[in-house]
Amino acid sequence: MRKGAFLYLEERDGYMHELRDKYLDYTKIINYTFKYEFESGNCLEYKFLKNSFPHLIGLHKLTDLPIIQRFNDKSDSMVSAKYLISKIKQEKLTEEDVKNSVHFHKIANRYHGFSSDNLFSMTYTDVIIDFDVSLLNKSHLVNTQYILL
Fold this sequence. Notes:
Strand order of the largest sheet: 1-2
Distance between the termini: 32 Å
Strand content: 15-25%
Largest sheet: 2 strands, antiparallel
Mean pLDDT: 80
Low-confidence stretches: 1-16
């Protein structure tokens, strides 16, 4: 093992298996709860769930990848977060796939900075924004107070 900037990455056969290693690092905090109290007294709580990993790392934005197209298609019940995670663990969805996506630039910072430690740091989670909730009046998010980008 060698120490990376944010987590331990395992190098085998001269290739970094970073996507799988990022998932394995994330498993250390599954079922932990992040609680942030705002100056206003409002609290934001988030529980790290196993199936949240693909979304948290930004895979849903790589819409040119066929497996992600199926994941984003709500009528396709075969490709779920659980399925994506199984492909990551089997190394059938790899860092190479992710970085070869034409949309990788949209998640590059999130992807490179993703680690269990960073998920609890305010530098990584400073994407919490206050917004005008009236913009969501006709949405299923109508009771939302804050958005995590």
